[in-house]
Amino acid sequence: MIEEMLPGIVRLEIPLPRSPLKATNSYVVLDPERPLVIDTAFNRTECRESFLLLLRETGCTPDGVDYFVTHLHADHLGLAASLARNGARVYFNEPDLPLARPANSYWEWMGRLYEQHGLPLSDAREAMARHPGRIYGPEADYPYTIMHDGDVLHRGGYTLRCVQTVGHTPGHMCLLVVEDNVLFCGDHILGDITPNITMWTGMTNPLGCYLESLDRVAALQLSRALTGHRSMIDDCASRIAELREHHANRLEEVITSLKDGEKDAAAVTPDISWDLKYDCWDEVHPVQKLFATGETIAHLQYLEAHSAVRSRNHRGRMLYRLSAA
Ligand SMILES: [Zn+2]
Question: How crowded is the C-beta side of 84, counted as CA atoms within 13 Å?
Answer without folding.
Answer: 30
